[in-house]
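Structure, all two chains, one model.
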Amino acid sequence: MDVLLSGQLAFSVAVLGAVYAVVGLGLNLVYGTMRLLNVGHGELVMLGAYVAFWGFTLAGLSPLLGAPVAALLAALLGLALYGGLFRRMLEADGAGGRLEANSLLVFLGLSVVLQNASALAFTASPRAIRHLDEVIRVGGVAMTENRLAILLVAVAACAGTILLLRLGIHGLAIKALIDNRRAARIVGVDVDRTQRLSIALGFGLAGLAGALLAMIEQISPFMGFPYTVAAFVVIVLGGLGRLAGGVAAGFVLAAVQVYGVALTAPTYASVLLYGVFVAVLVLRPQGMAGARARP
Amino acid sequence: MRRMGPAALLALLAAAAAVPWLAGPYGVTVATSAAMWVALTVSWSLLGGTTAYISLGHVVFYGLGAYLVAATWGDVPLWLAILGAGGLAGAFALLVGLPVLRVKGPYFVILTLGLAELVKHLVLNLEAGLGASSRLLFGAPGGTTLYAGMLALAVLSIALAWWVRGSRLGRGLAAIREDETAAETVGVPIARFKVAAYALSAVVPGMVGGLAALRSTYFEPTQAFSPVVSFTIVTMAIVGGSGGVAGPLMGALLLFAASELLWASFPQVYLIGLGVLLVGFVLFVPRGLAGFLPGARP
């Protein structure tokens, strides 16, 4: 019982929840604005982790500095995919048709390509780096420096993204697209530019999260899938397009996992993650419709 | 094609039935895998091939069937365990399909994404709790018997697909694919049809998993629930093309042949190739290989 009430677990929830929030925010932007079901979102996390790993191993670059690089590379990948594949799909999609199903199949294929290309290039064996792993104490809670850094950067990324969407004109355009595509186009939103911004931002956030995770998680070509699942929990639980709700959902998921594992055993971590995922979809399947039903 | 179809299928079946006499044990093993992929892909296409409700985790039924047969091995006659595997898979599909398929949209697809992983980790924990992390399956039937069973399941899946296609259910599913709201308006019981098709598409994979478990002398959950199986089924079905039996059949046989060439030595290259094919066919050949058949509607 003491363990459950300690600040130690609360800190774990904060770190994991902040990472989930960043990853989920990225998926929310891509799904919300374009209805692209990115089931390969976690592979961007994986790629970000490898960017941080190689930056650190080859050039001695701190993953904290590798994180912006990873975000930039992921954003460029998003822009390339948008220009090469998705713009055409979005324009060809007349009456809503099969865009969601098709985008999902395309992302499924891409995710398998990314996983196996990474396995070919980097081998499938897991890797890890040690960086900033000194333990410090803050108010009686012991934490490693890297976890504290992850928490701070992730919270800053969430806050920055949400502020951008609340305050800037581009953010307003993104929110408009999430709410109603057709109406947004009618009132003069530059749909193409807004979509490009969303995909760059969405992919970039996933890459950033991956680079941060490289400091504390094992890096492997197949590490991404749990983050895809977590991101969908964030969207469905938090509500589509409701970014702040999504951040809250990230912390709820993290709390279930951290406290659930504390009460049972570490082998239940995956059961808890996928269990929350299935439960959320079975109990709240309309969650992705967001605050307003879309026409 | 419409008239040539049955003749081509019968010729294929005759060739498949002759395999044990014409080919050695290795040939029978290969033919067993081919029949397995045909059964899985044709079953998947019952729902995924006709509607936007795509199951991304079909391995869950295969794995459940394998687990049931492994867990009851030696206690229950095999034929009964295989039938039970089909029943378990169908019941599980009903259970998870009922709440989610009532709702329109992509929720079902997203659910299937994580469902197989949940069941896999539940089985892993259950097995660890029982202290039976890998079960040995000694005394399994020989290669030819397994092949006969797998071929029978492939034929069953094709017969099921054929029957569904001509039935009220099949016409309802076609209407759902064209326009779900319109189908609902004219009185198609869309929720009931979607759930029924999902359950039907689960039964054969459950039995296939039960049989496939016997190809190895032990049962291991991470293999029985491997996401690669789900991904391969989806790719075979999409490459083959939907809307009938010919498409999934061709996709399964062609990609299986490619896997025989590549899988053993270059598994990652094979999977990259499958991923590229999946993306390419979705974007540029949405009707799949079946679209090139003579008699296919333009």
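Residues 13-224 of chain B form one domain.
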